[in-house]
Amino acid sequence: MVSGISIVGWSKADQLWEDATLSFAMTGDRERSAEALALARTSFSLDDPRLGTALANHAAKLDADRRNGLFRGSARDCPEGLLAEAHVAWELVYNWLDGMRLPPQKSSAFHLRLEQKHGDRLRSLRRDPLVKVAEEARERVIHARLPLKIELDQRALERWQQSGMLMSGDPRRLAGACILLFEAHTV
Fold first, then answer.
1. Terminus-to-terminus CA distance in the chain, angstroms?
2. Of 14, 76, 68, 27, which Cα lies nearest the Cα of 182?
């Protein structure tokens, strides 16, 4: 978990969402899923990939609870409605990607000159892999249908826990949204 770690340019909502979502991913705790969703709804824009992840994760959790006879949600928070909202949020993610800010790379004088000459190309080389990861996550959500069997990609979670501390800003926000999104398989 990232609790207690101060990240430059990271808001309290960024940190609380990441903590709640990571905790939910590790424990399946419905309260942490609900907390992540509430934070995303109140703190992030409609095109933020973390909102799409929070919606999809909570839909999958409530769907599993319903199949186990534990669902006590409101009509607003039914799994079908949340999954439909997740579809919309992930469709809007391209707006967020267009405005995504990449932190400057710390590099040598040679690399700084290279960036001055070929800045757009270098930014594209850094941005394109992130867009590909977002597109893969978007496809998982767009094609998800109820009933869902939720599975967590353990290798992705381990990579997130190892490399997450090395990232900052929008790349970290995007990585968290994509990696902490449950792999959803139809039952």
1. 30
2. 27
**Residue 100 near residue 127, CB atoms below 8 Å:** yes
Q: Are 156 and 87 in contact (CB under 8 A)?
A: no
CA angle 176, 177, 178 (to 5 degrees): 95
Structure tokens at 105: 């790379």
User: In 10 A of CB 168, how many CB atoms?
Assistant: 14
Location of structure tokens 């990585």: 175
Nearest to 143 by CA among 96, 93, 83: 83
Among 87, 84, 59, smallest CA distance to 73 is for: 59
Task: Concatenate the DSSP letters of all residues of 117-130 into one string.
Answer: HHHHHHHHHHHHHH
41: tokens are: 């709804």
- 64/148 Cα distance (integer angstroms): 7
Q: What does DSSP assign to residue 9?
A: T
pTM: 0.82
Interacting residues of 13 by C-beta distance below 8 A, sequence separation 6+? 39, 42, 43, 44
pLDDT 10s digits, 93-139 = 999 998 888 766 666 676 667 667 766 776 776 778 888 888 988 99
Strand partners for 149: 185
